[in-house]
Design a protein that fits this description.
By secondary structure, the protein is an alpha/beta fold. The protein has four domains: 123 residues, Rossmann fold (3-Layer(aba) Sandwich); 179 residues, NAD(P)-binding Rossmann-like Domain (Rossmann fold), CATH 3.40.50; 131 residues, D-3-phosphoglycerate dehydrogenase, domain 3 (60s Ribosomal Protein L30, Chain: A, 2-Layer Sandwich); 69 residues, Alpha-Beta Plaits. The chain is 28% helix and 24% strand. It has 17 helices and 25 strands. A seven-stranded mixed beta sheet has the order 1-17-16-18-19-20-21, with helices on one face. It has a seven-stranded parallel beta sheet with strand order 11-10-9-12-13-14-15. The chain has a six-stranded antiparallel beta sheet with strand order 3-2-25-22-24-23, sandwiched between helices. Strand 12, helix 10 and strand 13 form a beta-alpha-beta unit. Helix 1 packs parallel to helix 13. The longest helix has 20 residues. It is elongated, with a radius of gyration of 30 Å. The N terminus is likely disordered.
Length: 601
């Protein structure tokens, strides 16, 4: 028996990502991104192919579709892209140079975007376009949403994931620009630069009024130690500031290597003269700096937010400014943009900007170029960069991975066929075996589920959305990796439980072709090639079995192209027959077999 070295329960989509790339829980060093139940089922076009299954014990003949469609994996076909905001011209040029038709329509209202989006494979946005669930559900062809910038809080990532749409951003495109603006605001707060400049324009000369403080020797707290946080730290250290910080993902030893001492937030607040935040906006960061936090800070602490509006509680900030607990704030982002309530913007100790973090020529050129290059790389199957909801695809850009994905889908399709009368599925266990399969467990799990859930009512699964769909269907998914048992180097084993009945299968790739090695305890003498028209049936071992089945098939005008029998010759066993075409009616086999299923792969 092989010994399992890793086991992980998957009841929804799981992933750990950087704080600036889509989130981390500020109460933990790992994050679980759970998909919500109750999502609408997706429309399923009428498929081709036919599956018929006989359950001899119940005397019921069931009909279901059975030709498994390939999952939507890289390279992904993107022929048309809509750009809904102003991006650098290089974005359009790069896309068009690679054969993608581009349409630019800016300042569309929600209803206009909903009407327009149905015609496109891709959508490129910045921060103004709100890609809501309504927009996503109206996009019948959409395969990718590209955000030219950091963060994706203007995109409903959950809705996109459930529809199998990749959401991508350019996490490094505006890093330098955002970091430099943060530093500019820190310096402006320390020396009252904007207020003094405005006073001069009004004809005043108030040297005493604008007394400032040096940054040298002061403590800067950096909440969020990703790309931007790191760049801010290195720059402000050159002013002689002590940098401390918090990040639930970046290891303390890593941040220490660039001069930032990590600590818990409760330890950080009381030490800071200045605080800057560089996190995504998510439930665990909304109102991160509120009344309770300000009360723990030094009196007169100064804060900067160039990340996302809402991380600092605006009402609490105003109260802290009025009381003097907060000595000043540099704000480039707001909960509502532009803000209708001008209380903060008008406060004399606030330096407010109209969301200029990425507003440099260099950042705009970089983000526009990056998102176009990332889309082209994905379309060509070169690599996947910046995807926030499709990490499973990042390791599928090789011929070997393509073959393994086909294997997973084919095993899933076989088990779906053989268990068609025992729905619904309750539990699925996927085990990869062998050293070379160790890194493929994630996408093998998804590919098996694609095969299992293909053609389910209202279900259109692919590698991106299938874990979410499985959870929505109430299926418990477990995955594991085991060491090789010596019999086969690379094997994928799958066991499903449906209505109390258990079915299992094992397969591998041989000569570039997916093959079935075992089906529900029947180990085949020769591996079954998982291609073409296949008939699986369960029957008692008998010398006359093959001739009886062959005669029946001949009367139906179907030729046998291959026959695979199990090694064991006792008891009820599964057999596989390769057919010239699928049978029109499996009912004719009822007298010979106990269960039967056919499918085209």
């Amino acid at each position: 028996m092989a010994s399992c070295s890793l086991r992980q329960s998957r009841r929804g989509m799981m992933g750990v990502s950087h704080m600036e790339r889509g989130g981390a829980n500020f109460k933990s060093r790992t994050t679980i991104q759970s998909q919500q139940r109750g999502a609408p089922r997706l429309h399923h076009p009428q498929p081709s192919g036919l599956l018929l299954l006989i359950d001899h014990s119940s005397q019921v003949v069931q009909r279901a579709t059975a030709r498994p469609r390939p999952s939507k994996m890289a390279p992904i076909c993107v022929k048309t892209v809509l750009i809904s905001e102003s991006v650098d011209p290089r974005c359009r040029t790069i896309l068009e140079d690679n054969g993608i038709r581009v349409t630019e329509k800016q300042n569309m209202k929600k209803d206009e975007l909903i009407a327009e989006i149905k015609d496109y494979d891709g959508l490129v946005v910045r921060s103004a376009t709100k890609v809501t669930a309504d927009v996503i559900n109206a996009a019948s062809n959409l395969k990718i949403i590209g955000r030219a910038g950091t963060g994706v809080d203007n995109v409903d990532v959950d809705a996109a994931t459930k529809k199998g749409i990749i959401v991508m951003n350019t996490p490094s495109g505006n890093t330098i620009s955002a970091a430099e603006l943060t530093c500019a605001l820190l310096m402006s707060l320390s020396r009252n630069v904007p207020q003094a400049a405005m006073s001069m324009k009004q004809g005043n000369w108030d040297r005493k009024k604008f007394m400032g403080a040096e940054l040298y020797g002061k403590v800067l707290g950096i909440v969020g130690l990703g790309r931007i946080g790191k760049e801010v730290a290195s720059r402000m250290q050159s002013f002689g500031m002590k940098t401390i910080g918090y990040d639930p993902i970046t290891p303390p030893e890593v941040s220490a290597s660039w001069g930032v001492e990590q600590m818990l937030l409760e330890q950080l607040w009381p030490q800071c003269d200045y605080i800057t935040v560089h996190t995504p906006l998510m439930p665990s960061t909304v109102g991160l700096l509120g009344d309770e936090t300000f009360a723990k800070c030094k009196k007169g602490v100064k804060v900067v937010n160039c990340a996302r509006g809402g991380i600092i509680d605006e009402a609490a900030l105003l109260r802290a400014l009025e009381s003097g607990q907060c000595g000043g704030a540099g704000l480039d982002v707001f909960v509502e943009e532009p803000p209708k309530d001008r209380s903060l913007v008008s406060h004399p100790n606030v330096v407010g900007l109209p969301h200029l973090g990425a507003s440099t020529k260099e950042a705009q050129a970089r983000c526009g170029e990056d998102i176009a290059l990332q889309i082209v790389d994905m379309v060509k199957g070169n690599k996947l960069v910046g995807a926030v909801n499709a990490q499973v695809l990042s390791s599928t850009f090789s011929q070997e991975s393509h073959q393994l994905i086909k294997l997973g889908e084919a095993i899933g399709a076989v088990l779906q066929s053989c268990s068609a009368s025992k729905r619904p599925f309750g539990q699925v266990q996927i085990t990869t075996q062998g050293d070379s399969m160790k890194s493929s467990t994630g996408y093998m799990t998804s590919s098996v589920l694609v095969g299992l859930l293909n053609h389910e009512s209202g279900c259109l699964p692919n590698l991106i959305n299938v874990l979410s769909l499985a959870k929505e269907s109430g299926i418990t998914v477990d995955q594991a990796h085991c060491a090789s048992d010596g019999a086969a180097e690379c094997v994928c084993k799958v066991e499903i439980v449906a209505s109390g009945y258990s079915y299992n299968a094992a397969g591998s790739v041989q000569g570039g072709v997916p093959v079935l090695l075992e089906l529900s305890g029947s180990v085949f003498r020769q591996p079954v090639s998982l291609t073409g028209n296949l008939l699986f049936f369960k029957a008692s071992a008998s010398p006359q079995l093959l001739s009886s089945v062959a005669g029946l098939l001949a009367t139906e005008g179907v030729e046998i192209e291959s026959f695979s029998a199990p090694s064991d010759r006792t008891g009820d066993l599964w057999y596989c027959v390769g057919l010239s075409s699928l049978l029109k009616d499996l009912g004719a086999l009822k007298s010979l077999v106990k269960e039967a299923a056919q499918l085209a792969i």
